Each structure stands twice: as structure tokens, then as C-alpha cells.
Amino acid sequence: MIHHFLSAARSATEHLEQIAENTAFTWLPAKATLTISILAFIAGVISTIYTICTFISQKKTERNTGLLNMSEQRRLLIEMIRHLYRNMVVSYSIAVKMKAKNFMAYPSEEHLKKMSVELGDIHLNLFYRSDKEHQEINKFYMEVRNYNMELDVICDHFRNPYIDTETKERDLRTLCFKCDYLTMRIITILNLVVWGENQATQNCFQEARDIIEKEIKEKNSMPGIAYTKNFKPYDNQNSFYAKELFANDTENFLNGFNENVNHECGTNSEGAEKIHMITLRQR
């Protein structure tokens, strides 16, 4: 991009020099000559800006064209599964820390804001082949938007000292449930739209398991100090993760998940809390 910018700048400079030569009318008054020079300069600047904008637009078009194929859409959906798994770890870790402080502290807003799911690069509506697929895609979009909206509402609840503990506990359950549920929905979409109904569900399951297992190992090997307090481990045997996705290896999955939570509740290599808690103002 810098190369194109410099080329455009050089071109504009040459253009200005040529205009200056052509407009060097010595017989004109000084003010008229100055006015023409200023107009020529403005024209050159506009030309340069137009060239830069055109280049940026071309690059965006190239990027978007690269996204508009099924292989890239599948990769983005699998990456979304990884993101939702991390969200679930963070959600359960937030629950552990809020309960340890008797709900008199809440997580810094950044932790919840980073959990939102972006749909900007997801263009599944370009690939549906039937009304059923179209309906499922639109339903999925709506569910993701609802999840993002719930994150904003829950963030407001957590930092509000007038919201009761029962409501906040419900919010914590919602956070974990939605990560689990949306993972199931992504696999449904992958089966229906990407692989086709005749393909085995195990195709999607294996990809999802692989990226989650990789995430578990990476996060458990990161430097830092694990949480030193005891907490009730996550043991929902009816979750999609435990009952379906890791049905043949539920115990190892739950152990890995809880180890992730243990690390997430602890501190990083610099000794700072990974999930920063803010003391709730007294009512």
C-alpha cells in the first residue's frame, strides 16, 4: 500500500509541476497566478486521495472475494467454535470468581465485550440450496445477535449493585448455556450447508474436537499461576460438549476444561489477575 501511495504522490507532484509550467502566465496579475496555483494544488491533492481510496477499495474487494467460498466459510465457522469454547471457559471462571467474592465484585467489562461473536465475514446466505437451509441460516444469525445482546445486558447487571444475586446467578448460567448451545448450532449449520445432509456428522465433530483439544492444551501450558482456592468443577453431563461432542471421552474433556478454568482464574506471568475483578459499589 505504501508503494502505491508513493507512486501516486510522485505522479501528483509531476502533475503539479506541469500545471505550474502551463499556468505561469507572467502577464496575469500576481493574485490571479496565485489563485491558479492554489487550485492546481487542490486538484492534485484530490487526485492523490482518489488514487489511495481506489487502492483501498480494490484491496477490500480482493479480501471479500477470498472470503466468498465455502472452504473459507467453513474455516471461519470452526474458528467460531474455538472462540465459543474460550467464552465458556471465561464464563465459568467469572462465575467462580464472583461467587468467591459473594457477588460483591464483578469482572471488568472488557472480559464480556471480548466474548461477542462477529458475523461480518460470515456469508452463508450465498450458499444455501433449499428453503430449509435458508431458514436455518437466518435462525442462526438471529441467535448470534441475541447472544451479543445478552452479553450487553449481563454486563449491565453485573456492575449494578441493585440487581439481586439470583438474577446474576441466572445470567452466569445463561453465559455457559449459550456457548454450549451455539456450538451445537454451528455444527448443525456445517452439516446442513457446508457438508450436506448426506455427509456424516462425525466430519464436523472431529474438526470441532480437534480445535477444542488444541485450545485446551495451549491454554494449560501458558505461563502463570493457577487459582489457589477450591471451586466447584464444571460437571454438566447433559451439555452438548459432554453428551454429544465428547461423548466417547467426556471425563478427559471435563478435566481439561476445569484445568483451563483453574488457569483462567489465576494470574499471568506478570502476576496480574487474568480476570480482573472490580469491587461493587455499596448500595
Key structural traits:
9 helices; 2 strands; mainly alpha; 283 residues; 2% strand; two-stranded antiparallel sheet
What does this structure look like?
This protein has helices at 2-22, 30-67, 70-100, 109-113, 131-158, 165-195, 202-220, 240-245, 250-264, and strands at residues 105-107, 277-279. It has 283 residues and is mainly alpha-helical.
Radius of gyration: 28 Å
Question: How many distinct helices?
Answer: 9
Overall strand count: 2
Shape: globular
Helix-strand topology string: HHHEHHHHHHE
**Biggest beta sheet summary:** 2 strands, antiparallel
Widest beta sheet: strand line-up: 1-2
Strand content: under 5%
- Taking the alpha carbons of the first and last residues, their distance comes to 54 Å
Structural class: mainly alpha
